[in-house]
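User: Can you predict the 3D structure for this chain?
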Amino acid sequence: MTIDINKQYRTRNNLPVTILKTDLRGCVAYPVVAVVHYDTRDYVMYYAINGAYCIDETSCHDLIEYHPAQDLALDQPIWVRDSFDTEWQARHFKEYKNDRICCWPGGFTSHTVESLDEEVHWKFFTTDNPNK
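Assistant: Here is the predicted structure, written as structure tokens:
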């Protein structure tokens, strides 16, 4: 993995992170500058380009890629669409895989769908009803 300033990350111990810079001059080993958000304070930390806090060992401070869909529960109601000019559609969340949101088809849930293999993929989602 190479840290990308346009993606979202968390630490291994699930703290939110803001990437500030990925090409810090004069610091070959740790060119990534990030702010780690603790409950009451923010800390500036430096990382290797692969997100490692320590080059030689795994650390709870290492960066891992994060997507907000990872926090969704099975069958949670969400609204989805594939482009900014289409209407939002109410669906139930199935899973997040291959950088896509997967929902049950036609508003079904895991309890009502005919086959658990059925799914529809979407690019965008929100948990707040955008039609209100």
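The chain has two domains: 8-66, 69-126. The beta strands are 8-11, 16-21, 32-37, 42-47, 63-66, 77-81, 89-97, 100-103, 120-122, 124-126.
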